[in-house]
């Protein structure tokens, strides 16, 4: 009985992605499977089209969106990655500035996708996996201010009991009041100008605004736009964020 070579090769790619603990790039898949790169690209495009895989916008690497053993949904992170990429491209093209998506990861946020590689205006691009500060970053402030009161107080108590700057900021009632008042007045969170962790000394101080993404009444992620102060209108950026977040808050992908 004849076998279908293209199907066999597609299954090889799926097995390779499933066996890897990390997402894989094209060169890694080529080394692991021996399939020429042009064929690999066609196979990967088919898997993406059929919802089996996705390619990260920030790292350009491939990961499965479903597990081949159970045919069930993959992790929430992969589900978000398979959904959000086109929206981040649309947002970048419309605003001219890149965005970061951070997922709520237990007691902190973690950036899982970014459109910074598309931008020539922002030099600092290596942000995947970064955990933004909860009380100075725009992402962290959007998470905190956008959460319902009971959840917010739980987060603040946890921060206050920990080490470092976040602990004393979480106990500073005046600072927290200003943070929430600004969020309520503007309708979005701003990065504290003192937040410089993601910028080198040679680069300009970037600004950022962010909004929470809610599912089931809970903040599950936050989306920011990063820009150079004085070169963008915050109101326009916020409008673009709200448009994308409205789409993302409508469940469209299992597990998201």
Would you write up a description of this structure?
β1 (53-55) and β2 (62-64) form a beta hairpin. By secondary structure, the protein is an alpha+beta fold. The chain starts with a helix and ends in an 8-residue tail after the last helix. It has two domains: 5-64, Winged helix-like DNA-binding domain superfamily/Winged helix DNA-binding domain (Arc Repressor Mutant, subunit A, Orthogonal Bundle); 76-248, Beta-Lactamase. It has helices spanning 5-19, 26-33, 37-49, 76-95, 138-146, 149-160, 165-170, 173-186, 234-248, and strands spanning 53-55, 62-64, 99-105, 108-114, 189-190, 207-215, 218-227.
Keywords for this entry:
Beta-Lactamase, alpha+beta, two-stranded antiparallel ribbon, 9 helices, 5-stranded antiparallel beta sheet, DNA-binding transcription factor activity, 256 residues, 2 domains, WH_DNA-bd_sf, GAF-like_dom_sf, Arc Repressor Mutant, subunit A, Transcriptional regulator
Note the topology.
Elements: H1 5-19, H2 26-33, H3 37-49, E1 53-55, E2 62-64, H4 76-95, E3 99-105, E4 108-114, H5 138-146, H6 149-160, H7 165-170, H8 173-186, E5 189-190, E6 207-215, E7 218-227, H9 234-248
Antiparallel strand pairs: 1-2, 3-4, 3-7, 5-6, 6-7
Brief characterization of the structure:
By secondary structure, the chain is α+β, with helices and mostly antiparallel strands. The chain has helices at residues 5-19, 26-33, 37-49, 76-95, 138-146, 149-160, 165-170, 173-186, 234-248, and strands spanning 53-55, 62-64, 99-105, 108-114, 189-190, 207-215, 218-227.
């Amino acid at each position: 009985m004849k076998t279908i070579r293209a199907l066999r090769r597609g299954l090889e790619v799926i097995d390779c992605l499933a066996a890897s603990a990390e997402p894989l790039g094209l060169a890694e898949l080529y080394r692991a499977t021996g399939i020429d790169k042009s064929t690999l690209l066609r196979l990967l495009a088919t898997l993406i089209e059929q919802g089996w895989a996705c390619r990260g916008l920030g790292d350009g690497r491939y990961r499965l969106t479903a597990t081949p053993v159970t045919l069930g949904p993959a992790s929430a992170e992969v589900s978000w990655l398979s959904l959000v990429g086109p929206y981040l491209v649309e947002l970048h093209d419309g605003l001219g500035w890149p965005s970061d998506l951070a997922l709520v990861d237990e007691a902190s946020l973690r950036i899982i996708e970014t459109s910074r590689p598309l931008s020539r205006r922002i030099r600092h691009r290596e942000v995947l996996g970064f955990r933004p500060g909860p009380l100075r970053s725009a992402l962290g402030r959007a998470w905190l201010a956008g959460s319902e009161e009971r959840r917010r107080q739980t987060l603040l108590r946890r921060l206050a009991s920990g080490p470092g700057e976040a602990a004393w900021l979480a106990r500073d009632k005046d600072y927290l009041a200003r943070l929430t008042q600004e969020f309520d007045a503007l309708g979005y969170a701003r990065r504290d100008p003192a937040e410089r962790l993601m910028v080198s000394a040679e680069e300009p101080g970037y600004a950022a605004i962010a909004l929470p993404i809610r599912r089931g009444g809970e903040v599950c992620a936050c989306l920011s736009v990063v820009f150079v102060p004085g070169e963008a209108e915050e109101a326009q950026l916020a409008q673009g964020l709200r448009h994308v977040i409205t789409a993302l808050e409508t469940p469209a992908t299992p597990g998201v």
